[in-house]
Amino acid sequence: MPKITEIFFDCDNTLVLSEELAFEACADLANEILESHDISDRYTGDQLIQDFVGQNFRGMMVSLQAKYKFELSQDELEGYVKKEEDKVIAKLEEKAQPCVGVTEELEKLFESKKYGLAVVSSSALRRVRASIKKVGQDKYFDPENVFSAATSLPKPTSKPDPAIYLHALEVRNKKPEEVVAVEDSKSGALSAIRAGIPVIAYVGSYPGSDKQLEMAQVLEGLGAKVVMKDWSEFEQCLAEIEAA
């Protein structure tokens, strides 16, 4: 087995605690869209997370149209995507915090120079860059090593489609077995697994031990190699995959 030379990190709720802030902004827009189509249901940020965690806004809107059987024109959709990006970035620039313990691990990895480091996200590039910049993690990632399923591909997509991981592998000139991905969601883990990349399932951002246990089982069931409850366990998890 080739040795691990690169680590791909998901951004939202893996590096930066951004999901709740983003879903608050998404809920406002989702409700505006539902209202404009005379649909009486309304979402809170928490309910959106339950239904659509790991999807980007474009993916969410596709799911919402399917669920409620209405159609947005391409122009309407693009307008909402842009509006959502602006709203979320404003919230992130105001309130985003790093996931507990991750910055210390990034610092160690960066100093060791043993691995290439990249961010592979479903979220729009502007949003990912705003997130990591706000929490001071941008210094660990060269700008060209930040990849977005919504922005970096010829055709925008969202995890669990493996396209963004395949693109990152190509740009970084890596084979899947030379890389480890750190993911916290079903769609993110599936995206990496479908690209052939071994996954560390990070569950530390989920609220409470019951939810963490549930997600650990879900992500292992999908094929994640090892579960990490806290970033302090990262070196041990990486060593486990390297030894396999």
TrEMBL record:
Q: Which Pfam families match?
A: HAD_2
In terms of InterPro entries, this protein maps to: CbbY-like, HAD-like_sf, HAD-SF_hydro_IA, HAD_2, HAD_sf, PGP-like_dom2
Which Gene3D superfamilies is this protein grouped with? HAD superfamily/HAD-like, Putative phosphatase, domain 2
Organism source for this protein? Aspergillus heteromorphus CBS 117.55
**Chain segments annotated as transmembrane:** none
- PANTHER family to which the protein is assigned, alphabetical: CBBY-LIKE PROTEIN, XYLULOSE-1,5-BISPHOSPHATE (XUBP) PHOSPHATASE
List GO molecular-function terms, semicolon-separated. phosphatase activity
**Protein name per UniProt:** HAD-like protein
The record's listing under SUPFAM superfamilies reads:
HAD-like (SSF56784)
Q: From which residue to which does any coiled coil extend?
A: none
